Amino acid sequence: MEISEIIIAGDTPGLEWRLPVLRFEGSKPEAPTVYMQAALHANELPGTAVLHFLCQTLREAEAQGRIAGTIVIVPQANPIGASQSHFGELQGRFELGTRTNFNRDFPLISLRDRDTLVEDLTRYPATEQLKRRLLHMALGADLVLDLHCDDESLQYAYIDDAFWPEASDLAAALDMDAVFLSDGESSAFEEAVGYAWKYEVPGEKRKTLPGKLAVTLELRGLRDVYADVARKDADGIWAFLAARGVVVDANVSLPAFVGPAVPLDNIEMVRSPAAGTVLFHRDIGDPVVEGDLLATIVTRPGQPDGSVEIRAPQAGLIVTRISDRLVRRRADLMKIACDQPSRTLRKAGALED
Predict the structure, then answer these.
(1) pTM of the model
(2) Which of 76, 77, 120, 328 maximizes the CB count within 10 A of its CB?
(3) What's phi and psi for 100, nearest 5 deg?
(4) Are 181 and 112 in contact (CB under 8 A)?
């Protein structure tokens, strides 16, 4: 395993950021190449734990000559976000100086323009330099896994429908509870990767990308950082790599993925109609039918008519839930994966900021 560092100059004197990069050199040029990163949202750490254990397995495989395709791993992809705390609480999702989501505003370029990402980097602020460096590394691979997590959540993934159903092997390997089929219309990291591949010839969009994959893995919730869970997920990623011929393991056999795979239009984003205290009646993993009581918002404690009930708009599976119990009006409360499209109009791109 080769370890290197990318140094990113800070935006104030005397400050710089160090980005460790781990590389396993493949022995077969024809094998798929892989890029994996975790903690782009710096407070989302399940993926960092998973990559820690995966690297142990990869080092053993390397010593045995079983690494076929080159693998590049960035286990802590956002040192800038990791340094941002507010009143003792890590703020890893948004860059505090610009209020920009660290997983938005990645450059949308053609693959042929990949090297322009790292030209004259010093003219960009540190956060933009980081995004350009990460995207540049990812575009050198065939398979790109961006490891995130939700708040309280089942394990699921955002997968551009250009990669589906070929990517069902990843969903099976990780025993995912659900797959959200995205439309590739945002500037999030994995969608920027997909955009570059789709528009390898500028102006000509490819609708399918065989042999390629760029995916956001949501590895359960923020607090689901446990050694046994991380080892299980690391084994799942290993199985996926073996199935794709990146590593050599004759003992791997993947089952078919049987979970729901639904387009983003079929995701009910349940939001709070008022500010108040949340009393949840249903948990992640619960199936619901239309009209089921999901939550009560206590808007005026102790007063007559001081609460509001929230009911399921249609049948589905509760995939995520927020951990906050005091919410603002229009706060996201749940994501429910459904068989039918939501009646609520959705703007193109990501489900949330």
Answers:
(1) 0.97
(2) 77
(3) -90, 135
(4) no
Q: How far apart are CA 46 and CA 53, in angstroms?
A: 11
State the SS3 of the chain.
Answer: CEEEEEEEECCCCCCEEEEEEEEECCCCCCCCCEEEEECCCCCCCHHHHHHHHHHHHHHHHHHCCCECCCEEEECCCCHHHHCCEECCEECCCEECCCCEECCCCCCCCCHHHHHHHHCCHHHCCHHHHHHHHHHHHHCCCCEEEEEEEECEECEEEEEEHHHCCCCHHHHHHCCCCEEEEECCCCCCHHHHHHHHHHCCECCECCCCCCCCEEEEEEEEECCCCCHHHHHHHHHHHHHHHHHCCCECCCCCCCCCCCCCEEEHHHEEEEECCCCEEEEECCCCCCEECCCCEEEEEECCCCCCCCEEEEECCCCEEEEEECCCCEECCCCEEEEEECCCCCCCCCCCCCCCC
- Tokens found for residue 197: 């591949």
CA gap 227, 165 in Å, rounded: 31
| Phi-psi sector, 238: left (phi>0), alpha (psi -120 to 50), beta | alpha
What confidence tens digit (pLDDT) does each residue in 226-273 have?
999 999 999 999 999 999 999 999 999 999 999 999 999 999 999 999
Q: Are 340 and 314 in contact (CB under 8 A)?
A: yes
Beta strand pairing call for 332-337 and 267-271: antiparallel
C-alpha 67/C-alpha 248 separation (Å) is 7
Tokens standing for 318?
Answer: 């509760």
Q: Nearest-CA neighbor of 283 among 242, 327, 230, 336? A: 336
Residue with tokens 């996201």: 332
C-alpha distances in Å from residue 17, one per residue of 5, 129, 174, 214: 10, 11, 32, 26
